[in-house]
Amino acid sequence: MQTQNETFPRQLLAHARIRPEKPAFREKYLGIWQSWNWAEVNDEVRALACGLAAIGFQRGMNLAIIGDNRPRLYWAMLAAQCLGGVPVPLYQDAPAADMAYVLENAEIRYAIVEDQEQVDKLMELQSLYPHIEHVAYDDERGMRHYRQKGLLSFARLQEMGRAWDQANPGKFDAAIEAGKSGDNAVILYTSGTTGKPKGVCQTHAALMAAGVGGTGFENLTDAEDILSYLPMAWVGDCLFSFAQAMAAGFTVNCPESGDTVMTDMREIGPTYYFAPPRVFENMLTTVMIRMEDAGAVKRRMFHHFMAVARRCGAQILDNKPVPLSDRLQYALGRVLVYGPLKNVLGLSRVRVAYTAGAAIGPDLFRFYRSIGVNLKQFYGSTETCAYICLQPDGEIKFDSVGLPAPGVEVKLADNGEVLVKSPTLMDCYYKRPDATAEAIDAQGYFHTGDAGVFDHEGHLKIIDRAADVGKMNSGAIFAPNYIENKLKFFPFIKEAVVFGHERDQVCAFINIDIEAVGNWAERRSIAYSGYTDLAAHPQVYGLVRDCIEQVNADLAAESMMGDTQIHRYLVLHKELDPDDDELTRTRKVRRKFIAEKYAVLIDALYSGKQSQYIETQVKFEDGRCGLVAADLKIEPCKTFPAVQAAA
């Protein structure tokens, strides 16, 4: 494994020298997988970097990168770094107005984008941010009649680059040689749950330390295959698809589109896989929907062997002692259920799978490990290159995020906040010395904003965001995220927001999963015209109530959580949406915004009303706005006697 005191361009040169024929990137295009080896990637990046130099891109400049996961966009990151510039990936699904803030903050003049859609967004932004001088696009479809100044194709930019390279011998190599490990390697913008996004500046040394540390921890080699489908602007993708891929030299596979991810995943069969909890929840929802539609014999077989898996699957995965009868039953289940199920999900070859970005429900975690998927949680943040805690094999706990990663020091502040000192810590927030000083104290510890506790074996448990943890009027600790994750384990519940801080009881907003509940409704011949209609149906309310009451029963059995059972709930008339500012681009709940926007519903929940009328403005994908109105029912649910905490 290479040392971390290098730059990524030098790492690329090393791969081209050591493993020139090894596949570095694959991309599915028009149904066919295209492949580039490390030697070819080295040539492509060189041509692109020289093309950028030819149009005036220089050391210290920032390069915007916008689009789905595409090999050429990863090469654009490397090309900018070769010249001493800094790539700034943006969320490709962000509306033009949301992009304007990041473009202005990062002082973007150059951009490399995926296709016509992203070009159109940048053109639309001219009135808000007129300073972009050069835009190169990868996909040429639909671009034939575009004649704007400074607009050129990726292929044309590389063509210019090859000519520039010939005319300026040695300049490209000198630019790489001038790079230092302390130079900024990327600027990643935070999701902005509590305000405007902040640009996190990560150096080559910090990002490489995270890449080398993670690959070493899991003994990853250049033989791994990873599927790259999560937003390039998210730190998780930057770690797995860029830093770790560059550290180990393994293959990054890009799906054809977001709609084909599951099909492409089955074709590739990744050995190393990363997904946020939402993706694992969606996979499980798909499985449960299919089982509901299966015949009675298949359903009985599935539920029988899943009971066996819950009993002993995780222990077998961890090589712990299991009775012979269970081991034999599990072996039969592997043939009849677990193996085919993993194949359908594209997880057959997975050696290690990771999840992070939000807490994963213990039940969801247990499900995957029980069928033989080596799923682990890790804990990190954008400011630490997503590298704080990891779970070692054989030491997996469903309610913890593991032990501090190699080279990382973790401690708790007096108020329970998690503090971190690490070689992977950010250099600063871009142009925000005030925010940097607030986040990193005089001793060099980063204040994560998360509340946590260590168990007796040193494993860290994250309770919630420190700012979100509150107290009920009874004095009980109120951890909303903990309760919400329990609710979201059910395939019928897509999103949940609970309230209870400085209240006598907990109440909840619920978003149903339209696919799972729609399938459930169709099998019961329940007619509905859309999300709002289905969400208001009495039988759907009953379905949601059953889920909530199961969660209440679980909470009642936990000594610290028994007083936080949900007493009243409503099913929202619309899905919470990043475009309506209710969720971040990484689908984290913007709790304060929701509390303000839906204050009338919260008042109705706590004032004992049985219904509440509301009109809500929504944004459509084409930029238009509209109103969604509904008279929402509010219903009570059963609570259970809480167990008493041990004295």
TrEMBL record:
Pfam families: AMP-binding (PF00501), AMP-binding_C_3 (PF23562). SUPFAM superfamilies: Acetyl-CoA synthetase-like. Keywords: ATP-binding, Ligase, Nucleotide-binding. InterPro entries: AMP-binding_CS, AMP-dep_synth/lig_dom, ANL_N_sf. GO terms for molecular function: ligase activity. The keyword ATP-binding applies. Residues 15-430 form the AMP-dependent synthetase/ligase domain. Gene3D superfamilies: N-terminal domain of ligase-like (3.40.50.12780). This is Long-chain fatty acid--CoA ligase. The lineage of its organism: Bacteria, Pseudomonadati, Pseudomonadota, Betaproteobacteria, Burkholderiales.
